[in-house]
């Protein structure tokens, strides 16, 4: 028999304290009868601190509270959620009926790394700077760093629309919008309509509860895990994780936790890791969950605590600057698992040669800006290569199949003398598009 408690001793923002409670556990869901749901966030003796998922306006100290004995859950139905939009507590926000299906825990346990499959397949986005130079492996977790002033939504929308897995029909996208402005929400609703058959959205608006915002990444990951267990490869795209961290700071302060660096809570790393570590490749006939998290970087400072901790957790980074990926700062640590093995044999050599040539060209540009005159034919070829590389390869607004991206790399490399490319002779003979 479930006990009903009617003794809320304190209400501090969204945090409710109930006295005289026994037999509950952290993360357990509580029902505030006639009001909504809450989650246990702290236990101190027989006093339980609950975080109301729907605010506390209207809650009285005599509010009847019942603990459910299970963690916070949402309803899931693989076919029913496609094309739908949910809020931060898993309820429809598109005006359509509630989902009828099995309940799944929102903050489920992550898969043991020893049980994850590695190096099987990759996600193709159609963007050359990602697919060619920084291939995203299925099950990988990687952030896109948004520098100040960048309009990242167009790139995120392009990834949602274009993403695919080579040779696999079972693919879906879960989009998580955290603290979206109204115009951003309308924009992404239009994106959803373009790919409704394979996309689901979980959205919290900027004027809504920060507590609901904290649930958005976990609901996205729960949906993605269930789809992956059913055999789908799922890409989770979330924007913006800085807003998640800011909400975490706000809620932690309301809970009375002692702030740490820059005012963020001391468990920020573990809270971020609980999200990103849900990226997994199950292997076999089951699917995978790949996570791309957009992270704003205040003051163009990659050492900002949220970006810094995210870098330790994830497997690479994709900074965006002036509408294109900053290729010299981009990194996909897992790309070596598939490049040249599941992609064309020339993938690694031609992409490495292009990045190396671009680095040489940037050094030459710096010399020219310092007043040096560049007259050497090879140096001039490098500079011409850099101009074309920036114009044709780096812009994010493209949709090229991977083979076309590699061919583009060879076309650009042909602007350079063959002798400066560190590529094996037999591969040059097979793919070379230049003179000589």
Overview of this structure, please?
The structure is a single chain. With 436 residues, the chain is of the alpha/beta class. The protein is built from eleven helices and 22 strands. The strands form four sheets. Strands 9, 13, 15, 16, 17, 18, 19, 20, 21 and 22 form a ten-stranded mixed beta sheet that branches. A seven-stranded antiparallel beta sheet has the order 1-7-4-5-6-3-2, with no helix packed on it. A three-stranded antiparallel beta sheet has the order 12-11-14, with no helix packed on it. A hairpin with a 2-residue loop joins strand 5 (36-44) and strand 6 (47-52). Helix 4 (210-229) packs across helix 5 (241-254). The longest helix is centred in the C-terminal third of the chain and has 23 residues, at 347-369. It is elongated and about 85 Å long.
Summary, kept brief:
The protein has 436 residues and is α/β, with parallel strands linked by helices. Helix content is 32%, strand content 24%. The protein has eleven helices and 22 strands.
Task: Describe how the helices and strands are arranged.
Blueprint: E1 4-5, E2 8-12, E3 15-18, E4 28-32, E5 36-44, E6 47-52, E7 65-71, E8 73-76, E9 85-86, E10 102-105, E11 122-124, H1 128-131, E12 136-137, E13 141-146, H2 153-162, E14 164-165, E15 171-180, H3 182-194, E16 199-205, H4 210-229, E17 233-239, H5 241-254, H6 268-276, E18 280-281, E19 288-296, H7 305-313, E20 316-321, E21 324-325, E22 331-332, H8 347-369, H9 377-393, H10 402-413, H11 425-431
């Amino acid at each position: 028999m479930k006990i009903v408690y009617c003794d809320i001793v304190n209400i501090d923002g969204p945090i409710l304290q109930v006295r005289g409670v026994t037999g509950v556990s952290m993360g357990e869901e509580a029902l505030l009868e006639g009001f909504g749901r809450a989650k246990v966030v702290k236990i101190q003796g027989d006093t339980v601190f609950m975080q109301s998922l729907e605010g506390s306006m209207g809650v009285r100290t005599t509010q009847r509270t019942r603990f459910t004995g299970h963690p916070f859950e949402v309803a899931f139905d693989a076919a029913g959620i496609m094309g739908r939009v949910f809020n931060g507590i898993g309820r429809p926000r598109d005006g359509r009926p509630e989902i009828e299906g099995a309940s799944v825990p929102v903050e489920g346990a992550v898969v043991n790394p020893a049980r994850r499959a590695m190096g099987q397949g990759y996600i193709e986005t159609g963007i050359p700077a990602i697919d060619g130079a920084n291939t995203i492996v299925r099950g990988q977790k990687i952030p896109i760093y948004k520098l100040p002033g960048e309009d990242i939504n167009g790139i995120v929308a392009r990834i949602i629309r274009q993403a695919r897995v080579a040779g696999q029909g079972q693919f879906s996208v879960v989009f998580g919008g955290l603290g979206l402005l109204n115009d951003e929400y309308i924009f992404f609703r239009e994106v959803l309509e373009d790919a409704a058959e394979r996309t689901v959205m979980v959205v919290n608006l900027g004027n809504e509860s920060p507590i609901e915002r904290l649930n958005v990444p976990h609901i996205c990951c729960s949906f993605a895990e269930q789809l992956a267990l059913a055999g789908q490869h799922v890409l989770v795209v979330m924007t913006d994780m800085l807003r998640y961290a800011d909400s975490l700071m706000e809620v932690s302060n309301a809970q009375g936790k002692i702030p740490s660096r820059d005012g963020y809570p001391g468990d920020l790393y573990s809270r971020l890791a609980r999200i990103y570590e849900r990226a997994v490749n199950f292997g076999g006939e089951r699917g995978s969950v790949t996570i791309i998290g957009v992270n704003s970087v205040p003051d163009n400072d990659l050492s900002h605590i949220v970006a810094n901790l995210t870098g330790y957790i994830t497997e690479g980074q994709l900074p965006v600057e002036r509408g294109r990926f900053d290729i010299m700062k981009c990194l996909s640590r897992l790309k070596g698992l598939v490049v040249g093995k599941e992609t064309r044999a020339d993938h690694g050599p031609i992409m490495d040669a292009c990045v190396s040539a671009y680095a040489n060209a940037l050094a030459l540009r710096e010399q020219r800006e310092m007043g040096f005159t560049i007259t050497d034919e090879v140096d001039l070829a490098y500079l011409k290569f850099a101009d074309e590389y920036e114009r044709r390869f780096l812009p994010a607004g493209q949709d090229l199949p991977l083979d076309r991206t590699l061919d583009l790399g060879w076309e650009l490399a042909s602007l350079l003398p063959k002798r400066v490319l560190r590529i094996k002779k037999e591969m040059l003979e097979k793919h070379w598009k230049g003179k000589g």
